[in-house]
Target: Ligand-binding SRPBCC domain-containing protein
Amino acid sequence: MKLRIQTHVSQPYQVVWQGFNEELFRKLSPPFPPVRVVRFDGCLAGDMVVLELNFLLFKQQWISRITEQQSSESEIYFVDEGTKLPFFLRFWRHRHRIIREKAGGTIIADEIEFRTPLWVIDYLMYPLLWAQFAYRKPIYKKAFALSPHLS
Model:
């Protein structure tokens, strides 16, 4: 199953790329399940991210590896792929695209491909995952708003 959410932000794409760090990553975590960042190497190929998701009665580990990272004059992207996933996921591939807009500003595109143990659960998970990533939109907008002295 595939999911795509785009957010327009005011900052130039190189500034947005520089802002993709552990501090932003922590801000993007939704309220449920609470997430503890165990390890965050960064957003370059070979980097690892290790999370602990707390479902109150039990915890699950999520480990992703950054498998690709490319830069061009129009776009910077990186891909994280799940190597150890929570019980409800069997496959996870997330392409984070930071796309330069000709008129100024940047589009942040989250492109996710996921699979659960059963195809019917894919359809049940879709709105939950969509909500988790829609939650990021105002955080991105705030993090990458133009400062008053720059506008």
Q: What stands out?
A: The helical segments are 13-19, 22-28, 119-134, 136-143. The chain has a mean pLDDT of 94.
